[in-house]
Amino acid sequence: MESATYNRKIVLTCAVLSILILALGYTSHFYFQSLYAKKGGSTKTTESKSASTSSSTNGNNSIALNALELKNETYRWQNTSEGINPPLHLVANTDYTIKIKNPTDTKHELIIGSNGTELKTSKDILPGKNREFVFNANSTGMLEYHCQYHPDTMKGIIYVSGQ
Ligand SMILES: [Cu+2]
């Protein structure tokens, strides 16, 4: 009889203890969840901020052209989208920033021309240097670009369309 009440006491104590442990785990779970939710919220705000900054810089018209050495000092112009001596597509009466990188070991000079007439030059771009300049085509049609020093291998066509 006495051992039965003793057993009942132990069972009761165990039950109370396990309820306490469960309750503690439950509340701490919610506490940490709310902490992480706060952290996640602040990360989201910075992400959307940087996204809007990059979209505003994309508003400029820019064209990237790099000097490229193939082998035996044969050079080409190159961009990332259309490859070697790429055709350039411009809209008339619009400013374009032409950005040129020269990672080769010799100098280059980009010249934009029309029927042998020079319209714009980048001036000399020395080895390892970058250069950018603004070009604006004032009429539609076809122009050409070439390098002053490698006119036979570094050359391409510029198509100027209307707005
Ligand atoms: Cu060149």
* Overall radius of gyration: 34 Å
Helix- and strand-based class?
alpha+beta
Mean pLDDT: 77
- Detail the poorly predicted runs: 30-59
Under CATH at level 1, the class of the largest domain stands as Mainly Beta
Helix content: 25-40%
Based on the model shown, name its key terms.
single chain; 163 residues; alpha+beta; Immunoglobulin-like; 2 domains; 10 strands; 34% helix; binds copper (II) ion
Task: Provide structural commentary.
There is one protein chain. The chain is of the alpha+beta class. It folds into two domains: 1-56; 62-161, Immunoglobulin-like. The chain has one helix and ten strands, in the order H-E-E-E-E-E-E-E-E-E-E. Strands 3-2-1-5-8 form a five-stranded mixed sheet, with no helix packed on it. Strands 4-10-9-6-7 form a five-stranded mixed sheet, with no helix packed on it. Strand 9 (141-147) and strand 10 form a beta hairpin. The termini are far apart. Residues 30-59 have low confidence and may be disordered. The protein binds copper (II) ion. Copper (II) ion (CU) binds next to loops. Copper (II) ion (CU) binds at residues 75, 108, 147, 149-150, 154.
Helix-strand blueprint:
Blueprint: H1 2-57, E1 62-69, E2 75-79, E3 83-84, E4 88-91, E5 96-101, E6 110-114, E7 117-121, E8 130-135, E9 141-147, E10 155-161
Parallel strand pairs: 1-5, 4-10
Antiparallel strand pairs: 1-2, 2-3, 5-8, 6-7, 6-9, 9-10
Bound molecules: copper (II) ion.
Copper (II) ion is lined by residues 75, 108, 147, 149-150, 154.
